[in-house]
Specification:
Elements: H1 3-11, E1 15-18, E2 21-24, H2 36-48, E3 55-64, E4 74-83, E5 87-96, E6 99-110, H3 133-137, H4 146-152, E7 158-162, E8 177-184, H5 192-203, H6 216-219, E9 222-235, E10 245-255, E11 258-267, E12 272-286
Antiparallel strand pairs: 1-2, 2-4, 3-6, 3-9, 4-5, 5-6, 7-8, 8-10, 9-12, 10-11, 11-12
Helix pairs in contact: 2-5
């Protein structure tokens, strides 16, 4: 297991401080806010800790309210909304300094069988044929300022591989879609809830980037900010996040400083295991020091 993945697992070890109240730690990073994927993963973990292990998460719907302060703990208050015959519903509210920064409703279901159909996985290059994130960036590192370069190539808990670079690295305008292979950078225990929490973390890494692919040349000529507004996931089948998963992503719309992105996640064998949707803030500030 990589040190970065080991660190992520340490942040996914919550302390129970009261009945249905949990405390999660955050990394002390230089970024402006706690990574939203970590907050969502901790929120799901807090909810799952109050649910019968025989029931698995099948969906979650969340809103990011305020950016969390890095290096400071987050309290998760879990409301036991309903325990039904087949479904269990929980509502988790994440707070820092008593202020809500994130809310999530998650639903868990006992194992059942029914009709089945799913979409087909697109045909893409195998992950072993693609460069790592660090290898992909190596040729352009001398074009990036030192502090940004150091952050870009630091060890990461999730190994991601794709055929393209983000728009803020390669400004070539292209279609708002991309395919990214990802997996946890190490072997994980057989804990279904843990695998679900880590895939929630990973699902927030690249999805919103898809929405700016057609506008890359404009991004390089302006200052811009991106932030998740909401996040929804549906869990269709069991999976392991320490094995390669393909994240097929597309953005059907961007308007009014918001962008919508959609993703389907497949196992290497082609099984459609998750669906993700996210709307994010994509706000551009024209840099007056640069010419159009």
């Amino acid at each position: 297991m990589s040190l970065a993945l080991d660190e992520l697992l340490s942040f996914l070890t919550l302390e129970q401080i009261d009945e249905n109240v949990f405390l999660g730690q955050t990394p002390n990073e230089t970024r402006q806010r706690v990574f939203g994927g970590l907050v969502a993963a901790q929120a799901l973990l807090s909810a799952g800790r109050t649910v019968d292990p025989s029931r698995s998460v099948h969906s979650l719907h969340a809103y990011f309210l305020v950016g969390g302060h890095p290096g400071e703990p987050i309290t998760y208050e879990v409301e036991l909304v309903r325990d039904g015959g087949s479904f269990t519903t929980r509502r988790s509210v994440a707070k820092q300094h008593g202020v809500p920064i994130f809310v999530m409703t998650s639903s868990f279901q006992k194992d059942e069988h029914g009709f089945e159909h799913s979409t087909t996985m697109p045909t893409v290059a195998n992950p072993e044929e693609l460069p790592t994130w660090q290898e992909r960036l190596a040729p352009i590192m001398d074009q990036i300022d030192e502090s940004t370069a150091k952050w870009l190539v630091h060890d990461r808990p999730i190994d991601t591989r794709s055929e393209t670079l983000p728009a803020w690295v390669d400004p070539t305008p292209r279609q708002p879609s991309q395919d990214v292979w990802f997996r946890a950078d190490g072997k994980l225990p057989d804990d279904q809830l843990l695998h679900a929490c880590i895939v929630v973390y990973a699902s927030d890494l690249t999805l919103l980037d898809t929405a700016v692919l057609p506008h890359g040349n404009k991004i390089t000529k302006s200052r811009f900010m991106m932030a998740s507004l909401d996040h929804a996931m549906w869990f269709h089948e069991s999976f392991r996040v320490d094995e390669w998963l393909l994240y097929h992503q597309m953005s059907p719309n961007a308007s009014h400083a918001r962008a919508l992105a959609y993703g389907e996640i497949f196992t290497r064998e082609g099984k459609h295991v998750l669906t993700v949707m996210q709307e994010g803030l994509v706000r551009s500030f024209k840099d007056r020091n640069k010419k159009e």
